[in-house]
Design a protein that fits this description.
By secondary structure, this protein is α/β, with parallel strands linked by helices. The mean pLDDT is 96. The structure holds flavin-adenine dinucleotide and FE2/S2 (inorganic) cluster.
Length: 329
């Protein structure tokens, strides 16, 4: 264990060998800002005052020469080389309970949802609690860096489920789809993420997902039903994908509760398609109109989709506090 002290107030926390500053801070209950956990968003940037750190991921996308000159590093990638004094502004909203821990999971089943998305189910060791909308890092020996995957099920079953899209040539998805067998044990770290279902909020809900962003929306929809939220409000779900080949059985969502509506939007439909075409954010703007700003909005998917949704929601007058998202990289 290495001791990390936080300037200026002198708070001390410990970082295990091979762990990162961000994950150690969150394990200790300190609210260090973050989103992606893979070095791509830059939200976890912090300053080293004394000591030194090494990035686990060589050349992470959100880090530059300018950061190096200012002694700034990415918390999700920085591992301490010895005791350090560092500086970041803690925000309690990131210290979500339960705090993340490392544990193992045994692959139980892999059930296809679409031609390239499969729901993987793992039997977990230890506490399986998380909030619908959160994610865990999955690591496989021989593949550098854990990859984040969002839960698709609900906690309390002893199992963690993830709907995962195969990425052509991808290291971790290649292993999961082509090599992993029921009974295999994988390493997990979590839960992470702040874009989770708010069960206290009284507003109607809009969920938007693109491609592999389906997984957290399924968990949030399941969580809203389980918490009884849909007894007195509506949930509008919008799913964007490319062609008819990407469609899934709508009952996965509409079968959860009569208050759920699902609109699927294809960006490159075959001529036979009679549903909406184009981009999800345009369809949501047209379908929800002025009323959008009165909804609690959750979304997940590629960074470009996320940026378009944020702009559209902002132009529609939606307060930032009603938007919940983690970008996918
Ligand atoms: C918050 C979040 C939630 C996500 N949830 C889902 C989900 O529910 N379902 C789903 O299908 N996908 C999800 N993703 C995407 C997923 O994590 C992977 O990017 C994707 O599966 C490709 O992984 P791969 O190893 O197959 O591909 P690769 O091309 O081998 O790797 C791609 C990604 O892995 C990361 N990476 C690469 N090298 C390293 C390294 N050395 N250290 C750390 N990271 C590295 C980078 O983010 C890169 O974009 C999520 C991403 C984020 C950020
Ligand atoms: S770069 Fe560290 S959380 Fe995104």
């Amino acid at each position: 264990m290495v001791e990390i002290s936080l300037a200026p107030d002198g708070t001390v926390f410990e970082c295990a060998e091979g762990d990162t500053i961000l994950r150690a801070a969150l394990r200790a209950g300190l609210g260090m800002a973050y989103s992606c956990n893979v070095g791509s968003c830059g939200n976890c940037r912090f300053e080293v005052i004394e000591g030194s750190v090494t990035h686990l991921r060589e050349d992470p996308p959100a880090w530059s020469e300018r950061d190096l000159k200012r002694n700034r590093f990415l918390g999700c990638q920085a591992s301490p080389n010895g005791p350090c004094k560092i500086k970041f502004r803690a925000d309690p909203k990131f210290a979500v309970m339960p705090h993340p821990t490392r544990r193992s999971g045994r692959l139980v089943s892999a059930v296809p949802i679409t031609h390239d998305i499969t729901e993987f189910t793992f039997e977990m060791s230890g506490n399986d609690m998380f909030h619908p909308g959160q994610y865990a890092l999955i690591s496989v020996e021989g593949i550098a860096g854990g990859r984040p995957y969002s839960f698709s099920n609900l906690p309390g079953t002893g199992q963690w489920q993830f709907q995962i899209r195969r990425v052509p040539g991808g290291a971790l998805t290649g292993h999961l789809f082509d090599a992993a067998q029921p009974g295999d044990t994988l390493d997990f770290d979590g839960p992470y993420g702040t874009a989770y279902l708010d069960t206290e909020c009284p507003r109607d809900i809009v969920l938007m997902a693109g491609g592999s962003g389906l997984s957290p929306m399924v968990s949030i929809a399941r969580g809203a039903v389980a918490a009884g939220l849909l007894e007195d409000r509506k949930m509008h779900i919008f799913y964007g994908c490319r062609t008819q080949a990407d469609l899934f059985d709508p009952a996965l969502l509409t079968g959860l509760h009569p208050a759920i509506t699902l609109t699927t939007v294809l960006s490159e439909p075959d001529p036979a398609w009679t549903g909406p075409g184009g981009f999800v954010h345009d369809i949501v703007r047209d379908a929800m109109g002025e009323g959008l700003k009165d909804h609690e909005i959750y979304f997940a998917g590629p960074a470009v989709m996320s940026a378009a949704i944020q702009k559209m929601a902002h132009e529609a007058g939606t307060p930032m506090r009603q938007l919940h998202f983690d970008e996918f990289y």
